[in-house]
Each structure stands twice: as structure tokens, then as C-alpha cells.
Write a structure and sequence with these properties.
This protein has helices spanning about 5-20, 40, 60-75, and strands spanning about 30-35, 50-55. The chain has about 90 residues and is α+β, with helices and mostly antiparallel strands.
Length: about 90
Amino acid sequence: MSVATKAALDAAIQAHFADVTLGGFTTGYVLQVKGKTSEDLEAGQQTSYLREVAESQDSDISLGLMDFMHTKFRQSVGESWVPGDDD
């Protein structure tokens, strides 16, 4: 990712968080994206994944955020959902 794109992503996430929290500021984030690329299709692959984290974020913060998101997501959809069933 280019430096300019990363800066724009960080700024957009901060702006969104500030909007929804009435002026709050981000202290970390993990962004997980699922998509398809022309290379995926040519190679017979179905999906590409991209993960980005806040600038200079320590890995323990990223892991903690992912664990928290995983726990909250499971609670919201129930334990009957199995990852991959909807792919």
C-alpha cells in the first residue's frame, strides 16, 4: 500500500470514528477485507483477503482487537454459525 493511500485510510477511519462517537479518536484498528482480483480468477481462486492495521500498531493490540471482534461477532450471530459456510 502506498504511503498516501495508507494515510488516507487512517484519516478516513479516524473521521468515521469521530463522526459516530461525537468527537472520539481512534487508538487502534484492524480492517479485514474480502474481495476478488483478476489474478485470483486466473488462478482459479475464489477470494483474496487484505488486512490493514493502524500505523505503528503493536501486534498484541492487533491480536487483542481481532480476539474481541471474534468474540463479539460470535455472540451476535450465535454459536451455530461456522466460518466458511457463507463463502
